[in-house]
Amino acid sequence: MSSNSEEPSGDEESKETPEQGVVSKRRHHRNRRVNAMEYWQKGVMDDAPVKERWTREFKDPRLKRLKLPSDNLPEKLQMDGLVVEVHRRTCEVRLESMSCGESVKARYRATMIDELGEFPSVGDKVTLGRADDESEFMLLKVHPRRSALTRPGPKDRVNQQLTQAANVDQVVIVSSVSQPPFNYGFADRFLLAASWSHLPMIMVLNKMDLVEELPAEARDFLSLVDKCIPISAQTGDGVAELQALLANKVSVFSGQSGVGKSTLINRLVPNAMLRTGEVREKDGKGRHVTTAASLFDLPGGGMVIDTPGIRALGLLNLDPQDLARCFPGFFLDDHFSCRFNDCMHQSEPGCSVLADIESGRIPEARWKSYLRILGSGN
Q1: Domain residues of the chain, as ranges?
Q2: How far apart are CA 10 and CA 306, in angstroms?
Q3: What is the CA radius of gyration of the chain?
Q4: What's the whole-model pTM score?
Q5: Homologous superfamily of 40-142 in CATH?
Q6: pLDDT tens digit sequence for 132-179
Q7: Could you give the 3-state DSSP secondary structure of residue 135?
């Protein structure tokens, strides 16, 4: 018996059903959302309750154009400033006409995140505007950064960089020699990150009042960093030398939780009044006390950007071959000297790194630190 039904053509099979179209559109919008809670957990937002989805202005290009605040704002109502603190959808900005310690709150829209690719960061130079004296300030533009210290995004978006601080002159990593003990791998990662960002690095070895001499692991870094300063933030020993290096420069402070970073900044900036916390007894790790990056003015000139303590630091978009060729301390005068250009310093013949480890020029701890970073996928 013949049938009037016809087999569907290839074109009809490839057409998207209405249900599939709705699902596809929903997925597209979901991928465009910014997960604000993960930013808060990473310490770049305040701890106010937050809904994890942006409004429709983040999705619809037509709404973006309609809501862009700078479209019809004359130049006389725009003003430049410096970001001193960043929160959820707002940031504190010191205008050029303001003195130290003063700031205004400026709101930024989801369109700004879409254009910049991430949140504004402490140290950014920005342009604000408002329609009249009664209106709130709006962030109109983030100016190009001359330098930045960055870190990877969350685990599901590791290629999305998060800027710890912008427009800085040097990186100051604060490590402790005891309670918690010196972390070789973390120091190596920070040294590599600073080198990759073309920023000089100062290593501050805190809590020297708890030990009689510098640990051997810390001594390995003396010839690698631009400056190494043993100090005690509690007693003040060595702080004057650090103050001289910070004068008239923008320095970003970072380090693991519990190393005494907040205590040190409180000594450098008397009115900072940062909260401090004790090291946990059960595992020797620090408690997270700093929850958002903040900028402080040094009494003698210069600025300090305090960033949240972090227990791990990944390296952004660093190819394994690049890591093998630029790892700090492997090559004299940064001249690659292995026999093969693609040498990964594991077991290859003619590897100058392995030869230097055997001779004692390169500490074995540095090689093991390199292998951990290589094996972790950065």
Answers
A1: 40-142, 148-306, 320-375
A2: 61
A3: 25
A4: 0.71
A5: Nucleic acid-binding proteins (2.40.50.140)
A6: 777 889 888 889 899 988 766 555 555 566 788 899 999 999 999 999
A7: coil
